[in-house]
Amino acid sequence: MPNHNTCTIKPIRELVSKYYRELSVDPFARDCELCSITNDLNKNTRSKFHLKADVFLESLDEMGFVIFDPPYSLRQVKECYDSVGVGFTLKDTQNAIRWTVERDIIARKQKRGDVVLSLGWSSTCMGKERGYEIAEVLLVSHGSAHNDTICTVERKVG
Asked: What does pTM read for this prediction?
């Protein structure tokens, strides 16, 4: 079954453990504590930091392994921002879903061999243009009328 704490889903948790490194980052962690450095806008989560993802990512020098599990739809982004009193701007609507700004920051700061696990309803991920190659894809079916979770593992090669 789907779970808003995506990494608690057994096959996804197992995928994380396969690629995990000691230096690990989760910019949208909610209550997930699988990474060594965690962030979530909501201060009522177990995350260590509570910043917008782009600000959080810019504050880091290195990243190693990244779990990239943002809200999957505009509605989810708006609900997330509204729940913590952060305004949802036109700029946010243009960046959300693709998360281009955050992905560009990760690509700039990761080193050759570092890994990103992107989770979502589509296979949109880091991509060749940012210097990544796909290492593995996992499709997690949740049954019934629930959207599948697509898990794309990419390694920085460029």
From this structure: 0.89
Q: Mean pLDDT, the chain, as a whole number?
A: 90
Compute φ and ψ for 71, nearest 5 degrees: -55, 140
Q: Given CA atoms 28, 29, 34, 36 in this order, what sign does their dihedral have?
A: positive
102, two tokens = 């955050």
Per-residue pLDDT tens for 126-156?
999 999 999 999 999 988 888 899 999 999 9
pLDDT digits (tens, 9 = 90+) for 48-82: 999 999 999 999 999 999 999 998 777 777 787 77
Whether residue 39 contacts residue 27, with contact meaning beta carbons closer than 8 Å, is answered with yes
Other beta carbons less than 10 A from residue 133's beta carbon = 12
Q: Which CA distances in Å does 16 have to 19, 83, 87, 88, 115?
A: 6, 28, 32, 31, 10
Q: In angstroms, how far is the first alpha carbon of the chain from the final one? A: 36
**Alpha carbon of 98 to those of 23, 60, 113, 124: distances in Å?**
25, 21, 23, 7
For tokens 């949208």, name the residue: 28
Using CA atoms, how far residue 122 sits from 83, 84, 91, in Å, is 25, 26, 21
